[in-house]
Amino acid sequence: MPYALSRHPACCQCKILRCNADYVAATLNLRGSNKDTAYCNALRSYSHCTRKTARTCRGDLVYHSAVHGIEDLMIQHNCSKEGPTSPPRPRPPAPNHQGFESLDICNYEKNFLYKHGQAPTYQHCAAFGDPHVRTFHDEFHTCRVEGSWPLLDNNYLFVQATSYPVAKSSNATATGKLTIIFKNMKECIDQKVYQAEIDNLPAAFEDGSVNGGERPGGSSLTIQERTPGQHVEIRAAYIGTTIAVRQAGRQLSFSIRAAEEVARAFTEEQDLQLCVGGCPPSQRISRSECRHSGIAAETARLLCKEKLPVEDVYFQSCVFDVVTSGDANFTLAAHGALEDAKMFHPDAEKLHIFQTGVGCRLISLPFLLVIVISNLLAIQLCF
């Protein structure tokens, strides 16, 4: 289990990460003529902190690395082992009668900051339209994945999408059902299950509740209806995660902003996750050529351009979906996914993904015959 979410009693934890955080805070903005003196003070404080936590950290590699690192730095900067130390870093306000554990263990961001001295990092994943999957690593795939496939499967969350064909004789599919399981976390929530299907986007969990239950941290999991029947948002503060579920036309979409260590909390056996590894190669389809289903590619481009002025993968996916399905509502799916990405993606510079050579191309039968005949004539001329 990730350190920041450890459930062991505070008295038995190795607190070397707190020592690290205090040292980083003390040396972060050193300036002026007394910089060297202040640096040595910080190293002596660091050394003192590691000695205090030595008993509980004897088997911790981070602890031993810190001890050796301090010795090396003291030699490099000619610091004496005895002398003044840095003033202690201000601690969070003292807990009330409920105690720190019951107040903060279910607030992931606050708990992470308290233990590491810095804010957590986040990742974004989305599945919308055909479905198109944007992974936590900003890879982008269009998938057939008919049936049920896991988007996420880790220590805290399980998310499964069930897809169906959008048109006869087409490889394209769309998500018709989403199942989201927030796994039991002893200090914070009971296990909660959320299920959405086309034309049934509830604003409550499967048991009728709208939070994590009667446990002290139950309010750290909440569900809100943003647009009735179209947009639901689930906030899981106890794991630093927010999920958006939308319906546009005859398909559902899923977006998530998850703390990085939560997204990575899985075993080798949980290796099939579309948000982590994308679609398996056998399930990927090209967006280069679209099977016509009532709406021409140029018309689809105009429809998509109204909602998506930047011709990135969201725009390309929109064109593909509208042409393949014949349903103009797929413009709303791509637009909603982009709006979620604007809110959820931690790096605004990576919001748009551009892939060349994947635009929707329709080849008519007469034109295809012309190509075949031309190739045959070229072969004959060679002889």
TrEMBL record:
It is a lipid-anchor; GPI-anchor. GO terms for cellular component: plasma membrane; side of membrane. It holds the Pfam family RGM_N. Residues 14-81 form the Repulsive guidance molecule N-terminal domain. Residues 122-346 form the Repulsive guidance molecule C-terminal domain. It is found in: Cell membrane. InterPro entries: RGM (IPR040287), RGM_C (IPR009496), RGM_N (IPR010536). Keywords: Autocatalytic cleavage, Cell membrane, Disulfide bond, Glycoprotein, GPI-anchor, Lipoprotein, Membrane, Phosphoprotein, Signal, Transmembrane, Transmembrane helix. It comes from the Eukaryota. One of its GO terms (molecular function) is coreceptor activity. One of its GO terms (biological process) is BMP signaling pathway. The chain crosses the membrane at residues 362-382. Interacts with BMP2 and BMP4. Interacts with BMP6. Interacts with BMPR1B. Interacts with TMPRSS6. Belongs to the repulsive guidance molecule (RGM) family. Acts as a bone morphogenetic protein (BMP) coreceptor. Through enhancement of BMP signaling regulates hepcidin (HAMP) expression and regulates iron homeostasis. This is Hemojuvelin. It comes from Chelonia mydas.
